[in-house]
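Quick note —
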Amino acid sequence: MAQVTLRDEAVDVLQELIRVDTVNPPGNETQAAEVLRAYLEEAGVECELYAKVPERANLVARLPGRGEGPTLMLLSHTDTVLADPGEWSLDPWSGELQDGHVWGRGALDMKSQVAASAVAMATLAREGSEPAGDVLFGACADEEVGDDFGLSWLCREHSDAVRADYCINEGGGDRVEVNGRTVYLCSTAEKMSSPFFLRVHGRSGHASMPGIADNALVKAAPLIEKLGAMRPKPRLVPETEAFFRALGSVPDPEELPARLDALEPAIRAMVAPMLSLTVSPTIIDASHKRNVIPGRCEVDCDCRLLPGQTQAEAEVELRECLGEGDYELEWIEAVGGTSSALDTPLWEAIESFVREEDDGAILSPVVLPGFTDSHFMREAFGTVSYGFFPMRTMDSELAARLIHSADERIAVEDLELGTRFLLHLVRTLEG
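Predicted structure written out below.
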């Protein structure tokens, strides 16, 4: 009988996970947790399910260490965004293997990393591995929505189960060419989600007599245009300094716009959000009747701040952009905005994998424009948490377009590469 390879095993686990519909809402992540528990326990891995409600379980698996090293968490989530089968070439829950790719919702975000982590844990258990410190695998619920059924709840209610010194998560691993150099991107920091309401005031009236009213919707239009055209002043944070240093030299602040313009368009689109706050008006609410001129117009704006940037600092920039007017600016929340140190054994372990796998390639930190569950680990335990799951077969631009979109799929070569990386990480960090 032919021996099952690491690649075959990862493909099988990923296909089984994709065939479990964990679209959030409602999630139903317990189904995926049960699949993983059955697979891991057969290999001799200790598993526990933790659930705030029965249908939304988180799986935490553990390889006990010798008590001589740090605790490492392989972090992932099992929920996905929705999928409209009418937009897909294949059934989004088929897990079909076609043309060297596994297809389905979650293939990239992020059931591939879930599967690779599970296979790495099972492989180590079957080998009888005794790591220096505990190795954890967290397959969590509710990352896509964040209604406190997943890692946020675990960190608060079951902290001993997920406490770790180091953590590897989603959010990085892209292989790009920048100025003739091959660069693998590792997310070491995340921007803060800091949305706000822009409320524009006017005076309501009958729509048949616009002259007697002061239309708040019309007044909002030029303000929305200003936000859409806003170009905040770029600035460097430690992660972007390290990014430019890896490419040759760190520019002076006044040189940043020129250095940015010199990059290829795809790279520029990736780097630009790492240099300043971003703001995108996305939802508008005014009159709910066609014949009533609105006296108030509320614009919901997505806003992301750099790590360390405060809402007070950002508000100064926003008001300078908007100018004077009959409006209010109200912050809605502030979530994330955390970062981890760069000079760590975790970084060295990832860097050594990049050197071994891709001759001449370098590893560079990046600031993730969005945020992941990593910020819960950093905030709860001071965990050094990075986002890295390497890909080199699928073009990074294509992968970015497929995430949360139709025809999501992952190259089997990349799935195997990611599994090998996780095994390298454990063996290097916990050897």
